[in-house]
Write a structure and sequence with these properties.
By secondary structure, the protein is mainly alpha-helical. The chain has helices at residues 3-13, 32-44, 48-70.
Length: 71
Amino acid sequence: MRVFPLLLAIVALSGCGSVPQHVCPLVVPWSADDQKALSRALDSDKDPLIHRAVQEDAGFRAWARGCQGAQ
C-alpha cells in the first residue's frame, strides 16, 4: 500500500520537466482541378455565408502552413 502513493506521485510529477509538444494541424493539399472547380462554384454562388466559410478555411489553412514552417 505504501508503494501506490509513491507511484502516483511519480506519475503526477513526471510531466513537469518535459518540453511542451508543438502540434500543428495537417494541411491536405487541394489538386489543381479541385481548386478550379471551387473557383467556378464560388463564382456561380452568391451566398455570402459560403464565401465567408471559404475565407475562414483559407485563413485556417494559411495558419496551419505557418505553424508547420515554424517547427
